[in-house]
Design brief:
disordered N terminus, globular, 2 helices, four-stranded antiparallel sheet, mainly beta, 8% helix
Amino acid sequence: MKRIYYTIIFFAVWMSSGCQKDPYPYITLDQVKQIDSVRHPAIENVVFVYNSELYLMADFAAKPLRITNSGVPKKFVKGSHDHTKFAYLSSGNIIEIVDKTGKLITTLTNYNDVRNFDWSADDKTLYIVNGESIAFYGPALKVPSITYEGGYYEFISAAISDKGDFAYILKKYNFSALDQYEVVIKPANGGTMKIFKDDNNDFPMAYINFAANTNNMMLGFRELHSGTDDLDKVYLFEDLNDYPALKLNASSSRYSTPVYNSKVQYLLWGVDRDDKHVLFATYLKDDVPDNNKLLAGFDGVHYLDWK
């Protein structure tokens, strides 16, 4: 596929190098834009936390817009699919929701053990992993039940896809050896439940997140007692498979809140780079280095979301 794209671009450039005055004499401008969109897919509507404030980046090539101006520490931000409201954890582990102008919509004070949250596909509900259960701010979502296959478990985190698929992380206590972690995947259509275990991984499972547009899933691992929300390893699962399609090891780097979009085949995350934590976009479709993108001027981005 990549060879075809290069052939088309070469042909367009070669043909335009003749004596014609028009820069694109043999293909239309729309065709040129289509070719360029293959080479450089757009990354739009990214929300992130920088210096304790929310920013919305309508396009990766444009200057991000500052949403809030409160100075209150924020983390773990989740934006709605229509990009009009944003939920984040404020000081005291309290969820606050603001609109795109930064105006406070509501403060949720009745959840005392928030582990993660996200918006439903219709943006009417914020589902919240609160302790050992799933709570809903808005109309309740119909999701498969949580299943414990015997033993002593701790519920770590969960995610719901736009299609209603349910995936969650369990920590199984082992009193004679290391504790074990597993991901339980339950399709929305009532299909076969799947369980993923990674016994050869030294890092506990700590982060789970569905892509905004598909049931592709990100799974993150964090060093025990690391004292940070950053991740040491990240796996990408496709189409509810119970084995990762891609494993990304941080080696000397660390990652934060990875989000994948299969439409443009980009993975967005915070990445340690030259002793700075930057917002980085990694292109996963082909080995095209100039498609990788770095948000310059915003060092210290540890929390982001992309829909």
